[in-house]
Every structure is written in C-alpha cells, then in structure tokens.
Amino acid sequence: MHAPIPTNNLYLAQARASTDSRHCMELYDKWAATYNAEVGDEAQNYVAPVLVAQAAMKFSLSNGAADSVILDAGCGTGLVGEALAVANAKAIDGIDLSPAMLGIARQTGVYRDLTQADMNRPIDKPDGTYDIVSCVGTFTQGHVGPDPALRELVRVTKTNGIVIATILDEIWVSGGFKAEVEKLKEEGLVNVVTDELIDYVKGHGDKAVLAILEKNPHP
Ligand SMILES: C[S@@+](CC[C@H](N)C(=O)[O-])C[C@H]1O[C@@H](n2cnc3c(N)ncnc32)[C@H](O)[C@@H]1O
C-alpha cells in the first residue's frame, strides 16, 4: 500500500487534479507567493530538491565537469537551483510553466536564464545543450506526463550527460514513466544509472523514484 498523497495543501491537491496545463499554470501562479513557506524543506521536510542537487553535483565532480551547464526543468520557485548553487554549480538555466513561479525563481539570483515552457510539448532548446538536466516534483499527477517530456529532456542533454528526475512513486508504473524509460533504453538512447526509491517528503512516507539516465552516444 502507498502512503496517501499529502493533501493538507489545497493548491497541491488541486494541481495534482489538473486536467490540462492551463489549469495547472493558473494554480501555480496563485500559489507562487506562499509556495516556499508551505513546501520548503523546513516546512514539510520536502527533501527531494536537496537530494537531487547532491546527486547532480556528485556526477558533475566524478566527471571532472566542475563547470557543468545545468537545466532545471520545472524549476518552480528555484528550490533545486538554490540547492545546486550551494553545491557550487555555476551555470543553471530554468524552465517552468508558471510565470509567477519563475518570478520567485528569478529573485533567488542563482539562475543564468529563466524561460516559460510547457513540458508537455517539445522544449525550445537545441539538442545536446546541457551536462545535467534536473527535474524535481514535476512528474506528478496533473502536471507533466512521460511523453514527450522524458525524450525531450534527453534530447537537450549532451552525450554522456545525465537527466536526473523524480517521479512520484504512485505514477511511476501507472503513469507510463517506467515504460517510457524502458523504451528510451531499448532504443539505445540512455543507460539507466538508477531508478531507486527515495524519500520525497520526509515524515509523510511519500516516496519518489529517482531516475538517473545517462545519455549514450548516437545509437
Ligand atoms: C511541485 S512544483 C516543483 C517545483 C520545483 N522543482 C521544486 O522542487 O520545488 C511543480 C512545478 O511544475 C510546474 N509545471 C506544472 N506543469 C508543467 C508543465 N506542463 N511544464 C512545465 N512546468 C510545469 C509548476 O509550475 C511547478 O512550478
């Protein structure tokens, strides 16, 4: 049995029930001003941003790429970017659906570039741009589905770079994420470094799959 999704936050519950990107965007636009206070790590033990940033920088160091160029996809208010900056990341770009969330992310001062984008559509970035692509809290109910998003994140990643994403455990299989990752692997596009379960919101028993996909040279 899975632990219930914490629904103590009305916006989160509504966002997870979104039926289209426009509705989801409107909710995050309303939520942006209070998001950090409500889901920031101190408020709800939302540990996923820090765990992903640490994994990303570990990869960066082991690759000798201290100057990694990073895309934070679904960056929200910038919790992942801030954790990456603390871990010494230098060039971080962010994309997100919600202009208000992007506005808060801009105030952190850690992003090089911030752009509005709907990840349920092709991403307007050239192939092979980033060493690391992070995506935290965005592969969840009512937000972004596996196709075309996972393939798009891999496309904008450099060869031998990584996509590091959290996918809420409840939808890893039922939402088609596991199948899409297997498809990308079968096509020779990626090597699956890990798809382990991690704490997502500590104390709520909320878990997510941490998927790390290494982009292969052209199959
Ligand atoms: C739970 S928040 C996570 C934000 C941030 N990564 C974090 O960990 O705090 C989910 C984010 O996904 C964004 N989002 C929802 N649907 C999206 C879409 N179709 N394309 C891009 N971003 C989307 C929302 O605007 C919101 O900022």
Automatic annotation (TrEMBL):
Domain of life per record: Eukaryota
Molecular function (GO) terms listed?
methyltransferase activity
One Pfam match:
Methyltransf_25
Q: What range(s) does the Methyltransferase domain occupy?
A: 70-161
Matching InterPro entries, A to Z?
Answer: Methyltransf_25 (IPR041698), Methyltransf_Superfamily (IPR050508), SAM-dependent_MTases_sf (IPR029063)
Q: Which PANTHER family match?
A: METHYLTRANSFERASE
Q: What is this protein called?
A: Methyltransferase domain-containing protein
Taxon lineage: Eukaryota, Fungi, Dikarya, Ascomycota, Pezizomycotina
